[in-house]
Amino acid sequence: MSIRTDLYAIRLGPAAPGDLMKTVSVCSISDTGIRPANEDAYLVSRLTCPLGDYSLLAVADGLGGHPAGEVASHLAVRTLEKILREQLQSLTDPGIDSLRSLLSLAFSETNRTIADLAETQPEWYGMATTLVAALVAEDDLCVIGNVGDSRAYLISDSLERITRDHSRVQELVDCGVLSPEEAEHHPQKNIVTRIVGRRGDAPDIFTCRLGSSILLLCTDGLFDGLSERRILSVTREAEFPDLCRELVREAKEASRDNITVVAAKWPGETGPSPGDR
Questions:
Q1: Is there a contact between 119 and 134 (Cβ–Cβ < 8 Å)?
Q2: Would the pLDDT of 216 be above 90?
Q3: I need a surface site. Which of 31, 34, 66, 213 has the fewest CB within 10 A?
């Protein structure tokens, strides 16, 4: 089991002495569960550019039954980070539309990179992964992208699922054939309809304001073991940063998959910028 807890300080405005810092608390955990190996991957990173700081959170789930699932998931989060770090250096407009375009481009380039490697490396032929990622600006604007069935939630007094699964079962729910409750136990719920590693599979992009809510990214191992109602209850009951550990501990009792969770909490304590320390 891999456990990491991080504290990030994101500056508000120019980095001058006396500026206030917003502390972003992030916890992250990945657990193999009952599987023989862990094909999930996650990343927590702070990206600095001329226009300010951004937090990047990402979770990926290498596809079981495909070659090199663990390679695909780790490659996805690292490639996404590299592309965003490079592209942010030339960002001239920090508005919503620019950030949406930037994240969409990063997803597309990550998809192309994995597809290229899968075609040129025989041992990796057919590798693929899900991917959900959140790029968070200094003013708590959050842009989220997803491909596959890894999810992003916004949690306060209630739970809001931000992303929409790209899965066969979700399509049946959308058509009214299944209820959301029936979908949770459907035998085909793990069949995804979009993946990172197949040319042409584009991400969905969402935006939200975080405020004082908790942002939660996870692979399907979490909601395979816990209902959304229980995810909400644990999130409200657990102290941060123990939240991730508690979610995984409970989910392991029923989940049949690897479980990975990244949670971020805004805002934290304020204090002086590094220039004052």
A1: no
A2: yes
A3: 34
Q: Is it the case that residue 273 has pLDDT exceeding 50?
A: no
Q: In whole angstroms, what is the distance from residue 164 CA to residue 181 CA?
A: 15
246-268 per-position pLDDT tens digit = 999 999 999 999 999 999 987 64
Structure tokens at 275: 């220039």
Query: How many angstroms separate the CA atoms of 49 and 141, rounded?
Result: 16
Per the CB < 8 A criterion, the answer to whether 167 and 193 are in contact is yes
Residue 41 CA to residue 62 CA, distance in Å, equals 8
Contact between 60 and 80 under an 8 Å Cβ cutoff? The reply is no
Contact criterion met (CB below 8 Å) for 153 and 234: no
What are the Cα distances from residue 237, in Å, to 57, 157, 158? 23, 11, 13
The single-letter DSSP state of residue 213 is P
**Structure tokens that stand for 158 in this block:** 């209630």
Q: How many CA atoms lie within 13 A of 154 on its CB side?
A: 18
**Domains of the chain (ranges plus CATH)?**
2-268 (3.60.40.10)
Q: Which residue has the higher pLDDT, 150 or 266?
A: 150
Taking the C-alpha atoms of residue 12 and residue 141, their distance in angstroms, rounded to an integer, is 13
Q: How many CB atoms lie within 10 A of CB 106?
A: 25
As a 3-state breakdown, the chain gives helix, strand, coil percent values, each rounded to 5, of 30, 30, 35
Both tokens assigned to 15: 């980095």
DSSP 8-state class, residue 226: S
